[in-house]
């Protein structure tokens, strides 16, 4: 347990430092899933303030899984109103977390691994407050082994 806490803190600091150094990052945030498992009914909400007009931005989900996660993959159902605050777009995306031999993809320390899932490039029309919602799309009612889910938006400002 002490090792997991140390690994989580180290990964969090590394992510924060890398984000702070990237001037193109518009938004970057994580939410932890409940320690007893991520229920199908547990929706993670990300409130995203966009202050500048952007020509386009890259959207990605970031996943931190523990080594006790039982599957190679993870289905995420992502809904957002980023392109138009009045229209919701929903996609089901697949992230492969481990290869066929069970070796975890992404980066990791100890029993915690981080992977990124590019969602796509989206054009934004106006500054404003937007929302992105994520649920898991796996068959399990309670999904164990997923530690955190993050959202990252990188973009370019108009000149």
Number of DSSP helical runs: 1
Report the uncertain regions: 16-21
Shape: globular
Number of beta strands:
11
Radius of gyration computed on alpha carbons: 16 Å
Give the terminus-to-terminus CA distance.
Answer: 49 Å
- Helix and strand element order: HEEEEEEEEEEE
Main sheet strand line-up: 1-11-4-8-7
Explain this structure to me?
With 159 residues, the protein is mainly β. Helix content is 12%, strand content 52%. It is built from one helix and eleven strands; from the N terminus they run αβββββββββββ. The strands form three sheets. The protein has a five-stranded antiparallel beta sheet, with helices on one face. β5 and β6 form a beta hairpin. The longest helix is centred in the N-terminal third of the chain and has 19 residues. The protein starts with a helix and ends with a strand.
Feature tags:
four-stranded antiparallel β-sheet; 12% helix; 1 helix; 159 residues; single chain; mainly beta; five-stranded antiparallel β-sheet
Provide a compact summary of the structure.
The chain is mostly beta strands. Helices cover 12% and strands 52% of the residues.
Task: Give the helices and strands, then pairings.
Layout (H helix, E strand, L loop, with lengths): L1 H19 L4 E8 L5 E2 L4 E7 L3 E13 L6 E8 L8 E8 L10 E3 L2 E11 L5 E9 L5 E2 L2 E12 L2
Antiparallel strand pairs: 1-11, 2-10, 3-9, 4-8, 4-11, 5-6, 5-9, 7-8
